[in-house]
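In response to reviewer comment 3 from the previous cycle, which asked for concrete evidence that the modeling workflow produces usable outputs, we include below a single protein chain processed end to end. The sequence was submitted unchanged, and the resulting structure tokens are shown without manual editing.
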Amino acid sequence: MSISKTPKVSLVGAGPGSSDLITIRGFKTLEDADIILYDALVSMELLIELNPDIPKIYVGKRCGEHSLTQEDINGLIVEKAFYYGHVVRLKGGDPFVFGRASEELEYVESFGIPVTVVPGITSAISVPASQGIPVTKRGISSSFWVMTATKRER
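The workflow returned the following structure tokens.
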């Protein structure tokens, strides 16, 4: 039996791991969710703060340990959006920094489902900042690079 709500998807960045580093918009979006699909790097403390009646499904990936392939995650987002309504895809850090959000966004939109992106705080900036290390500093560094060591295969 379908719950029959209008499907929509929000790709939300959970921040760098601490439950209090999610943005206010991100938290409000989570409170509005009908179901949450979350990654391995999302804080369990954050999930505990949310309505316990909202289904939460782990779809995380760790090196060599993938609960689902990216294609399976894409399909699950669409399936749950048509069934539940508002799917929040909760991703560690920022959805567009090594988060495959662009793949999810393109796939979901191909079904005519509207997608909203809520940026998150990336660890590429927050971890150095938490230690008092600037990523740019006048006279020292005017830019910085963020790179991944992983390839597209997974």
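The two ends are 34 Å apart (CA to CA). We consider this sufficient to address the reviewer's concern, and the full set will be provided in the supplementary archive.
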